[in-house]
Amino acid sequence: MKLQKLIAPKLSWHNGSVPKSQHFDDHYYSIENGVQEAGYVFLKHNQLAKRLDQACSFLESSTFRIAETGFGTGLNLLLTLALWFEKTAKQGKNNRVLLHFVSFEMFPLRVADLEKAHQAYPDLAVFSTELRRHYPLLLPGWHDIWLFDKQVRVTLWFGDALAGLAECDATAGSQIDAWFLDGFTPAKNPEMWQPALFQQMARLSHKDTTFATFSAAGDVRRGLQKVGFAVHKTHGWGKKREMCFGQLAHVRPHSLKAPWFARPEPIATGTAIVIGAGLAGASVAYKLAEAGWQVTVLEANNQAAQHASGNLAGTIHPLITADWNLRSQWYLQGFEASLRQLLPWLANKDIQGNLAGLVQLAVTDVGEKRVKEALKRVGLPDCFAYWMAQDQCAFKAGSEVNAAGLYFPQAGWVSPPSIVKRCLMHKGISVQYGQVVDTFERIDNQWQIHTGERAFKADCLIVATGALNNRLNQQLGLPIRPVKGQVSHFSAQQQTSALNCAVMHEGYSVTLDSGLAVSGATFEAPDRSASLSIQSHQTNLDRAKTALPHWINAQANSLQGRVAFRPTTPDHLPIIGPVADPQWMQQAYLSQSHTHAVYRYANQHYQPGLFVSNGHGARGLMSVFLAAESIVADLQGQPLLQPNALYHASHPARFAIKPWRSGQKEVKG
């Protein structure tokens, strides 16, 4: 999935309050009264007051979804929020409906421009302030923000709307209830008002989906009618003569472009078993419990976080590549998901860590070139990352450094064991230690799990066993390779001073709140020894001294540390999601020609309620919470947390499907 570098809009202002795009030579909304115009066109003609009233009266949990082309200043969102909270206020704590607002913007405004525009609607200040507080990074692609204590989800796609719409999931739980077609006028923005726009609208809609737009252009009306919408014209707002609105009248079938990655059938909230009490298992158990599941965690050891999740510190920072490739996009999503979860816990002192900044030193020429290419080609915003000279890096780190580098204001370090502990404290979770899983099977619509002396059963099963349970990994077809890593611990006396923030180099170095420091970690494949080695301590020392020449005063043979094994994958992305039925997949796909049109292949079949979260490697702190949210969304039939391309990129079936689709032999895990 290639994304274009974002371009900041060039604006002028009518009366200092209504922005006008210089690129499109058009105002963002009426210069007379944008609030009244948006209310009339979009809220009234999508019958939102009535429909939100009905949605909020439902007793069961549900989602009302609105999609908008052209986010602009967010005015339509703010008015929708005002109406939404007017309706949900009647329900109070009984409200079980989530509002999900999806919007696409090619030229996203800066926060300062939003604030200037928002000053014109003081009655919406509560909502505009919340939006600006959570407004995402100005980076291309998909961003999720959650407002008002997770009562509202806003998904913003920064980039071409047609590309973003194609990345949206169209399963029943993800379909759109109402469309706001609010891009700049078709005469000035013809690139958006294309047949592809209307085709995507039809694909993402259901029989009760409505739309409204200020435009009554003939091409727009005919385009909507051609894909199945009933279109009506009425008086426009203010001086505008006409507008149009309508509803999907003819629902037409749409084939998936990747049926082998189709989403599984949802399961009603019930009981779940998670195998593994590391970061991957604890995070998915927590998210399931938050969603109302009763969760049992089975851990083979007598304590949680005994493998890679037991390291005293780990870093959280985005993955920067020169071309902002699929991995960079995936880990940006993971980074944002982790911050959403961890920042409140840090503020409440529920976990240990510091996410107030991280220095990534460019200790190699290749690393420096990659970062500078990214700064140029991707356009990294300063609030996300910015380049610093060597002396600036030293000031941030609190110790002399040997290179310039990148500074991430929102990155840093956390304690993985404290996160695991916080997750497993949830009242909906029971942890059973010393339970080595021997077998599991599906009987009478439940999973039966057998350990040495006990049996457990649940509606769904999530396997999050990490690197070392080769038997289960092979049974599930997961190509997991354990890679040994050793970290070294430095006492306060072995440091000339504490580091002010986490420092990345060829490894990472962190001074903990206790004064102890952690540095590492080595990559020692194919070594499977669990013993600490002086040689590995020396490697960590050498790397730390190369980057931070005067920080450590110690000898390798005097150090303590820890060995763990990372679960790595061939493509360096985690393995997350539903587990396919291997016999069905072999018959339906792998034994068939790979050249048929995709509509000739059936949608993937899964083992009901069986999921995995594994292969998180060295970046687990930036992937496990996104993985957990994705699994819960699949289980409950909720909208995806990612664009299709990124959901597919970490799908468990990819290792069998990709070589088959490229004409290679099937690759077994």
Please outline the helices and strands.
Layout: E1 11-14, E2 18-21, E3 26-27, H1 34-44, H2 48-57, E4 62-69, H3 75-88, E5 97-105, H4 111-118, H5 125-134, E6 141-147, E7 152-158, H6 161-166, E8 176-181, H7 195-203, E9 205-213, H8 218-226, E10 229-235, E11 242-248, E12 271-275, H9 279-290, E13 294-299, E14 314-316, H10 326-347, E15 353-354, E16 358-361, H11 365-377, E17 386-388, H12 390-397, E18 405-408, E19 412-414, H13 416-424, E20 429-433, E21 439-443, E22 446-450, E23 455-458, E24 460-463, H14 470-475, E25 481-490, E26 502-504, E27 508-511, E28 517-520, H15 534-547, E29 560-568, E30 575-580, H16 582-590, E31 606-614, H17 624-636, H18 644-649, H19 654-661
Parallel strand pairs: 4-5, 4-8, 5-7, 8-9, 12-13, 12-24, 13-20, 16-26, 24-31
Antiparallel strand pairs: 1-2, 2-3, 6-7, 9-11, 10-11, 14-19, 15-19, 16-18, 17-18, 21-22, 22-23, 25-28, 25-29, 26-27, 27-28, 30-31
Helix pairs in contact: 1-3, 2-3, 4-5, 9-13, 9-17, 10-17
Shape: globular
- The number of helical elements comes to 19
First-last Cα distance: 25 Å
Helicity level, as a percent range? 25-40%
Fraction in beta strands: 25-35%
The biggest beta sheet is recorded as: 8 strands, mixed
In the predicted model, the low-confidence regions spanning at least 5 consecutive residues are none
Total DSSP E strands = 31
Write out the strand line-up for the largest beta sheet, numbering strands in chain order.
6-7-5-4-8-9-11-10
Supply Rg.
Answer: 26 Å
Instruction: Calculate the mean pLDDT score and round it.
Output: 93
